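TA notes. Do not distribute before section.
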Amino acid sequence: MEIQSSTPNQPQPYPAHFKLESVVRPNILALHPYRCARDDYSEGILLDANENALGHAIVSQGPSDDEAHVAVEETLALPLHRYPDPVHLPIKARIASLRSLPAPENVFLGVGSDEVLDLLIRIFVKPGISNTGNDKILITPPTYGMYSVCAQVNDVDVVKVPLGVREGEIDGSEGGKNGRFSVDVEAVKKAVIREQRELGNTIKIIFLCSPGNPTGTLIDLDAVRELLEWEEFKGVVIVDEAYIDFVGSAEDADPDAEIYKRSAAQFIGKYDNVVVTQTLSKSFGLAGIRLGIALAPIPIVQILANTKAPYNISVPTAHLASKALSPESLSLWRKNIRTLKHNRTFLVSSLTSLSQSTLPDSTLSLGVGPIIGSNDANFVLVRILKRGAKVGELKPDSTRAQKVYKYLAEEVGVVVRYRGNELGCEGALRITVGTEKENKAVLEKLVGALGKI
């Protein structure tokens, strides 16, 4: 398979030590991708793909003026009897414009980010776990769990280098104004060298989650750049930016510029060894349509496209994604993000106040600890403390946090996420930023739970 060149404004490969052909698995390089007539001809009398020319046989039911019925009718009017566009160039063009990329060809679309992550491992990392000579991935826990799941499914070993954990610096809060978690670049380098020189293995991918899940902390782009330019590492750095649109505050004059300033997407077209994954599931509120995105150098996008299943993005998904990326929808999208950031500020402020609160008729702490992480995502990570602790006394209690989690879900119908088993997150609950009403409800129910447990 001949690999395309990078973007026209980047004539020389960079960094010089990175050779894509030596990182991609040989069988993937030799792959003859599936092709169909629709790749070349999309109009006319289409009798090439053995579709049902009569169309679907779905009968729509319900009042014609019902909003849900109208939406169903709109969906049924789509060309559902045809296979989807294999390329979706208009959608890619809108994404490229939104993220200030060199070209639409720098965009790959997958069935959710999880398909993208799985494909990247399949492309770059040779399966098999033995004593030596293995390809591996490197992750930085606490982090998104699907990196390890995809690795296990593909019979790939995982090297874990924990995030650096800083203790309180300002006003007793954990990690000060920038949160407590950061990439330990030197530890990552030591792990790569150890695998390579001592164990005879090769780290093919470094996964970085920014903002992190569950940490909610943005990764410093200087750390990403240092790994991209480090000559000892010949693989690919993948930056997972599912939550990138929530960085900054509701008061930012130009939120798009703030996002770009913090996003590794600015490295696309400058580095050949970086991939940035994003999604429509979070800030766009479209988790149900399953559209994941990879922003990458053109050669990597080409390899992803050659390896994926044909027609992976459905007609309804493409239709809704195109609508979501229209100028009118993007205006509402920005407004919604601003509202969520306001709601996040309220939730953070309220939880911070609760950390100074006491149990009823007592001088002992209610048990809400400090927020950890820097709140760059649409969730907050907060500690639950041991019952009987004094106000200001930091004693995280994972057992109590689990009980609070179960009580909230089973007794009062509020579902949050227990994260106390994650490194550096002892006693922590992850609370998604909800509507104003939902945020007030979770705070009220949390206080009630801590009074009982």
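Switch to the second chain here.
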Amino acid sequence: KYEEAFRNATTEVHNDIKSVKVTLQLESGKTMTFYPRQGSDEENSVLEDDNLKQQKDLKLIQSVIHIKDKYRISDEALHELHMLGASIPSKNNIVLEKKRLNSTLELYTNPSPNIDCTRRKAKDILEYVMSYSKNEKYLENDTLLLRFACDGAKISKNINSVRGVFKILIPRNSLPEDVKGISMSPEDEFTLFFYIGDESRPVLENLVTETFQEMKYLQENGLELNGRLISIKWIITCDWKALSIIRGINGAQCQYFCMWCHCSKKQICDFSIPSWPIQRCPLEQVKNLSGNTFGYKEKDLCPFIPYDDMPVDDLHLRIRISQKLFNQVVTWSIDQKTEDDLCKELRRIGVSFRMWEEKGDDKLNTKVKKWSQPNGDDLRTVIHKMQLANVLSDQRDRRYVNIESLTISQLKDELSGRGLDKKGKKCVLVARLKEAIGSNTKVQKKCHSRLQVSYDLTDDEYEQDLDIDALQEIWQEFHQLMESLRVLPNSTTYKTAEIFHNDAKEWASNFRKQTFDEDVIPYIHALVYHVPQFLGKFNFLHDIGVAQVERKNFDHRQAYFGSTNRNGGKNRQNISKQILERENRMLWADVEEITRVKRPYRKKTE
């Protein structure tokens, strides 16, 4: 159509002009060249070569931009390689193509100069992604299941950031036979909003209310794609803190801690209760908001998502309980003075660990022991492979706990019970408690103390030793429970909702027998009562969790240092805008399948 239009236009051109050449730059970035007035065979041959070269050059530029974004390579580094003679497009060509790809999806930046917040519309993302046939697998009965998540993380030492993302889920009734058929990548998490600031209720309400309103509109009205009306169903999964902020419910430390039911701290250790159904609902929240009943303190930012569409996040579930198990062992190791054995055992299984002492500034120069916390992958290794018998022994009353190994909250409880000041750093609290009890380094058990420990037992009192074999079994059973959440229903290690509930309930009861009531954290309650409920509804929870959102956090941190000007330079831009422009480019590259197909690895044999 272009050639015909220009051929008609050039009929008025003087006859003494032998040929006319037209070059068009299309919005897609492609270049089209043709002769509306017939050229010679030689000119046509050159034209074909030029078109082919332009297409190759454009593809090379787009591939370089994709690699640049993926590995966070600076413009200056590419320019220096280009100047050395490497077959890399010039910086000018790369910058021009980047500007075009930045507009793949429209970005909405907060107009206030003091606010760094940029967002994208879910409608725009879905229309762009679902326009490609390869994504038809996500549709079932003209319905899309979308998981929303919100998470905060530092992108530098002094800069906090928060992002809201969503993921298109495989229909729960059409799960593949192999877990490899489910994509688990940070690229699957589409960023709806990104802002620089704290993860707090006032900031969320102020900056991203429009995003929640759009989500509600899509759920109520659907989305038209290629002439079809597609229903949208949202579910939400976050860590406990983000859920409490978004839902307007008290945190995990409060009396009514649970995000799904009315269980209180007085009932959290009672695993004889058959079930805790999902009792929370938006209507109940509106009725009880004024009286702060059942932990409701603010309005729900996502009332259009029912509480039974809010699955437990398996990543933070595993990490928080694993941390509790691990820190118990570290504390017991300090009491038994086997810290060297602990470090040796962790080195054996390949986990980085460090323990050190800090001297307090009090008059007693009290030394406080501290230790590093393994990351999520290392915690999984610790629970699975660590042999507790190499670190601990049974020859100890587990009611004895050294003062130095107590947490800050435990120290404050003990000081408060003695009518002492509970303000100050941990080293100060330790010194104050030691001074109060004289030469003893153990804490005495009291009637209502959170500590189940004693230092003045007589010889004829019953002493219950720490059972290492039973504790090791608790670790292994927990590992098996969590691994069962990572496999599909057709796997031999998969647990149905009923089996999972029974096994988790038995595990929690054994955990309570071998440890202390204060160690039963809210995530253990969720493991026993609410994970089975969502497992029965969604069949598979691992792809719903926020593991890839955490990787997205890391990617954004790396992008801050490698792909933005960090809000400096001559052309200052919002950090949030630069990061979402990069996501626009990466989304385009993913949909257009720009990524190089890697050769299969073949091990060379001598």
